[in-house]
């Protein structure tokens, strides 16, 4: 299943949005805070979720609305999901923070979608008894997002079973892929062993440690990779992980990742799961810097009326762009400089216009102390100051 198009009207903070063409492998949604990136993921997940109908809300003061999704897994005559507001009367007055009616879900094929929300960290868990029961029906509430509560139990169970001759090949493949997750972004880290204390140990440059003691960045990657593998194994027990051709949603992919890893994570996931369609939100230019132009959905708009910005400026993608160029031309930042710098630049220019040598020299001294030693801006300020000093000799 691959999502081809999406239309949202009057859901959450979105008044109107139409996305006509999704990339079959990777889609990066970016835009300013509050524009509705997470709302888009929630809307998609809602159409493939058995429960959790109260998470999405109608847009304030709207009378109707819907979510239409077209995907390639359905015949042309019935290729659209239509989600409408329930006929329930308002249970709260207009002043309540819970005002609004829940949207009913008429889901189809919920097993084909996996959703990762922003909670992806975990703490140490002492395994006193192993939970070996993962029921499929408990994993189809996609709007709640993938749970990491039993991930450790899942790994231990599969590692123990992998040594049994009756274990299926696809389950053995799943646990081997899960072990690779430790070194996906840094090959110095590898799976060490599952020991008698039922702890999962990892080889690191500083020694062998329990996997819960890894950094937040490692935990984030493990949660995503293990989450995908685990969900596929539970939903499709007879299928190999790499044969899954569904959709994976990830909110704020860059959370807890160093910029270097932010630039690697998307390509790593696409390489590891080549048949999956990823739809991801981000605030990171490092994520966008590694992808093609048709894989970026840059949102703009006001009052909930959104549109996908045309990125004709980058027909060959962003791999040759600087972070600053992506921030300003793709992500919509008006200026990458601080307010302090802009104010000092304005004061300096005013001093030049007034031939105020003393003030210009004092401002330059401040700029020299705080700008990068090799800053091109600093070189320009110095050139302008030299000209002013020369005129006033």
Automatic annotation (TrEMBL):
InterPro entries the UniProt entry points to: ATPase_AAA_core (IPR003959), Bact_Antivir_Def_Nuclease (IPR051396), P-loop_NTPase (IPR027417)
Top-level taxonomic group: Bacteria
Official protein name in the record: ATPase AAA-type core domain-containing protein
PANTHER family: ATP/GTP PHOSPHATASE, EXCINUCLEASE ATPASE SUBUNIT
Boundaries of every ATPase AAA-type core domain copy: 26-288
């Amino acid at each position: 299943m691959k999502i081809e198009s999406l239309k949202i009207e009057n859901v959450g903070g979105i008044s109107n949005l139409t996305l006509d063409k999704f990339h079959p492998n990777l889609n990066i949604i970016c835009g300013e805070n509050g524009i509705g990136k997470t709302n888009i993921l929630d809307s998609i997940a809602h159409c493939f979720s058995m429960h959790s109908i109260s998470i999405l809300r109608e847009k304030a003061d709207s009378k109707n609305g819907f979510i239409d999704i077209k995907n390639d897994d359905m015949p042309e005559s019935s290729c659209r999901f239509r989600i409408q507001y329930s006929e329930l009367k308002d249970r709260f007055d207009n002043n309540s923070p819970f005002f609004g009616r829940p949207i009913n879900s008429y889901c189809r094929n919920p097993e084909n979608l996996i959703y990762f929300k922003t909670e992806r960290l975990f703490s140490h868990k002492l395994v006193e008894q192993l939970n070996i029961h993962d029921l499929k029906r408990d994993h189809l509430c996609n709007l709640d997002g993938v749970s990491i509560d039993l991930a450790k139990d899942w790994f231990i169970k599969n590692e123990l079973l992998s040594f049994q001759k009756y274990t299926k090949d696809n389950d053995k493949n799943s646990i081997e892929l899960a072990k690779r997750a430790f070194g996906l972004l840094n090959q110095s880290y590898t799976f060490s062993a599952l020991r008698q204390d039922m702890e999962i140990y990892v080889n690191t440059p500083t020694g062998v440690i329990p996997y819960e003691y890894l950094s937040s960045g490692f935990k984030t990657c493990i949660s995503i990779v293990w989450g995908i593998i685990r969900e596929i194994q539970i939903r499709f027990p007879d299928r190999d992980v790499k044969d899954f051709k569904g959709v994976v949603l990830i909110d704020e992919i860059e959370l807890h990742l160093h910029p270097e890893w932010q630039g690697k994570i998307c390509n790593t996931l696409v390489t590891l799961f080549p048949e999956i369609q990823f739809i991801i939100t981000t605030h990171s230019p490092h994520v966008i810097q590694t992808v093609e132009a048709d894989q970026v959905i840059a949102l703009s708009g006001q009052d909930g009326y959104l549109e996908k910005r045309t990125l004709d400026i980058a027909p060959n993608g962003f791999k040759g762009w600087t972070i600053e160029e992506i921030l300003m031309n793709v992500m919509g930042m008006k200026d990458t400089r601080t307010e302090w710098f802009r104010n000092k630049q304005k004061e300096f220019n005013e001093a030049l216009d007034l031939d105020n040598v003393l003030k210009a020299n004092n401002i330059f001294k401040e700029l020299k102390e705080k700008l990068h030693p090799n800053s091109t801006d600093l070189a320009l300020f110095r050139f302008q100051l030299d000209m002013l000093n020369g005129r006033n000799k």
